[in-house]
Design goal:
Layout lengths: L2 H60 L6 H16 L3 H23 L2 H5 L1 H36 L3 H4 L16 H4 L10
Length: 191
């Protein structure tokens, strides 16, 4: 065999291997990006679902504790902030405010035994616990996808070329006060 033919075949082999590597890497990044986008969509659906429960909760508690105007206004502001959140950082901040607002509403509810026995309140309580559980599960799924995507972008040799193909790292959906959301708001009044 001619030396130039060997060099050509080696170069061709290298180009083919590099091409296959880029192709596989690109496709896997597209898949991860789609998974992260889907997970974020699920988070927004769950946050909206919980936000939709808030007006009913406020109305139910207002029926028993009409003088607690500041707490009702705070939970209404937190709901609006949650619905307006446009990304993980804004949603994280809104989530912190929502958790604090819900704590104050349920603290008020503890002072009213008739409210705690109300069927409407009990149903809202159950729906909120379910919503909180789904938000936590969605957040874990989203953050897992973000971790995979960010790792794939950051590893060598991917880091050399993937940013040029339009891939960028994503933000985690984190909260400042993890203890506040470690479990859903305590809304079980001994029933």
């Amino acid at each position: 065999m001619d030396v130039s033919l060997i060099v050509f075949l080696v170069a061709l082999g290298f180009v083919l291997v590099l091409g296959v590597y880029v192709w596989v890497t690109y496709n896997s990044l597209v898949t991860l990006r789609a998974r992260v986008d889907e997970a974020w969509s699920d988070i927004t659906v769950q946050l909206k679902r919980r936000a939709d429960l808030i007006p009913s909760l406020v109305d139910t508690v207002k029926g028993y504790a009409t003088h607690e105007r500041a707490a009702f206004e705070e939970v209404t502001r937190a709901r609006a902030e949650t619905l307006a959140a446009s990304g993980p950082a804004a949603a994280s901040e809104a989530e912190n405010h929502m958790q604090q607002a819900l704590k104050s509403i349920f603290a008020i509810a503890e002072a009213y035994p008739q409210l705690q026995a109300s069927q409407n309140f009990l149903e809202l309580q159950s729906a909120l616990v379910d919503a909180e559980n789904k938000i936590q599960a969605s957040r874990r799924f989203y953050n897992g996808g973000v971790r995979e995507l960010n790792t794939k972008i950051q590893v060598f040799p991917n880091t050399i070329f993937v940013r040029g193909m339009g891939f960028k790292e994503r933000e985690f959906f984190e909260v400042q006060d993890f203890a506040a959301i470690a479990e859903p708001p305590r809304i079980d009044f001994g029933n």
